[in-house]
Amino acid sequence: MMLQIKSLSKSFGNQRVISDMDFTIKKGEVVAVIGPSGSGKSTFLKTINQLVKPDFGIMHLNDKEYDMAKIKESEATDLRKKIGMVFQNFGLFSHLDVLGNITLGLEKVHGFKKEAAISREKELIEVVGLSGKEQSFPNQLSGGQQQRVGIARAMASNPDLILFDEPTSALDPELVGEVLSVIKTLAKAGNTMIIVTHEMKFAKETADKIVFMENGEIIMEDSPEVLFSEKAPERIMTTRKTGG
Ligand code: ADP
Ligand code: MG
Among 23, 88, 104, 140, which has the highest number of CB atoms less than 10 A from its own CB? Predict the structure, then answer.
């Protein structure tokens, strides 16, 4: 297992958002997380890289054990270096151009020398199909292009695991395809990824495993073949149709 989480729990005030949840993903695997709005999907992702501290949870990442509720900030920083994240609203630095957005973390967090950071940026910009856009600022790019920068940035340091939180839900429909296609390419290249998405066709085609969350729990997890079959429980079928 690349990542194994046991007994993950998180409440906000007296609202239980994640309830004693177990989760595993193997190296090279792609797991799609689906489920209705408010079921705890984003919170789940954020506990993995300590953007949200859970109340309880034991995590193994590449054989290293973490007590998720008690992790120190220095250790959390270390953990975040191994985990890339792509946000719904891109999360780019508006005052930096594409080059700056991708190289900043490499230099400041990962200790790359400027030349090495730029050379890595060049590789990534090609992977996400944005050659020639290095000097553009986020507000000069379409949403689809901005999200591709977000993906390049998340991939920059070659993380062990990449988390995607509804990467296309802020996009105009005509721009969704270009972003899903980049994610699909990265999936085929063997990257380990957890993708929260409402794009059911994409999940079915791309994921090795689908996890269905409801009320902070995993209600069902299985291969796309099983989870998208007519045998799936009624409420999963409904979520699939409405997109949660
Ligand atoms: P999903 O991503 O599945 O839509 P979330 O993880 O965003 O669900 O949210 C699950 C529940 O937790 C929601 O009821 C939401 O309002 C609540 N919640 C999320 N983040 C916070 C927070 N920082 N403070 C208080 N409540 C929160
Ligand atoms: Mg969410």
Answer: 23
Q: Which ligand is nearest to the CA of 244?
A: 1
Residues in Cβ contact with 228 at an 8 Å cutoff, skipping those fewer than 6 apart: 200, 204, 210, 240
Residues with CB under 6 A from ligand 1: 12, 17, 37-43
Cβ neighbours around 133 below 10 Å, total: 18
- The pair of structure tokens assigned to 142 is 């379409």
Is the distance from CB of 231 to CB of 241 less than 8 angstroms?
no
Query: Which pairs count as long-range contacts for 22-27, CB under 8 Å and 24+ apart, including other chains?
Result: 22/218, 23/211, 23/218, 25/1, 25/161, 25/192, 25/194, 25/209, 26/1, 26/2, 26/192, 27/2, 27/192
Residue 14 Cα to ligand 1 midpoint, Å, equals: 12
**Start-to-end C-alpha separation, the chain:** 29
- CA 123 / ligand 2 centre spacing (Å): 30
Cβ neighbours of 132 (radius 10 Å): 8
Which ligand has an atom closest to residue 10 CA?
1
